[in-house]
Amino acid sequence: MSIPAVFDYHPAKTVDEALALLQQYGDEAKVLAGGHSLIPAMKLRLSQPEHLIDISKIQELAYIREENDVIAIGALTTYTQVEYSDLLRRVFPLMPECASHIADQQVRNRGTIGGSIAHADPSADMPGVILALKAELVIQGPNGKRTVSADEFILGTFETVLEPNELLVELLFPKPAAKTGSAYTKLSNRASHYAIAGCAAVLSLDSDNTCSAASVVVTGAAMQTARASATELALIGKQLTSETIAEAASHAAEGLELVGDIHGSPEYRRQMVSVMTRRAIEQALERA
Prior knowledge:
Elements: E1 8-11, H1 15-25, E2 29-32, H2 38-43, E3 51-54, E4 64-67, E5 70-74, H3 79-83, H4 86-91, H5 94-100, H6 105-110, H7 113-119, H8 126-132, E6 136-141, E7 144-149, H9 150-153, E8 154-156, E9 159-160, E10 167-174, E11 180-188, E12 195-205, E13 211-219, E14 226-227, H10 229-235, H11 242-249, H12 266-287
Parallel strand pairs: 1-3, 2-3
Antiparallel strand pairs: 4-5, 5-10, 6-7, 6-10, 8-9, 11-12, 12-13, 13-14
């Protein structure tokens, strides 16, 4: 089956208009941003919303700007805008680096950062970067706005804290400390470019090059994008030698519910998580 089920289409021009439609149709509605995840699911009839609310034309949600000690990014900012942003390349090079690894140019031209996070696909690239950078996510609903941390936002596979009548509208990133480096590495499916196993790492160093902070997140290998807490603990307070890094990376898959499919067994993914984590940490260290 390659034709979606019948639905009503509602283009929204403002956030308030989109929220009013969500309030009206509730669980019967789906939000369309870039559409690269939702439309294929609808064609396969894995998703059959009765109402489709198109927010892609809401210009007020597409921006990247500096606000004091925070970088604010609108939820409808595209991967291409992220990839070529001079501001992000200067402050958060991890984000443009990650965006350049996502699918192909056509997808990057349409896909949005907020859409990816709200979809919460465990094989997607950007959710891992959002977690690694410890972003704050601004959610708007009928009762106003609320802010949650990236770690609180994703609950599971394709599951987030968003209520049916809410939208993710903005992402806020605190500027990094001095001597901070980051990297994103992944083993990708050559057909879809999704991550079979990937890692986003952010490291900060003290004046004596001791690791003062570490944020390490695993993508693709588990049932949800997840923080490698054991690896983070193994890095903080240490001089990051090749031995220290290898030992820390060996714990990256601990506590994760690893996936097994045609692309790799859980055991294979465990090994690849360790490899990708080690490479990401090494690159982040060089950049710090």
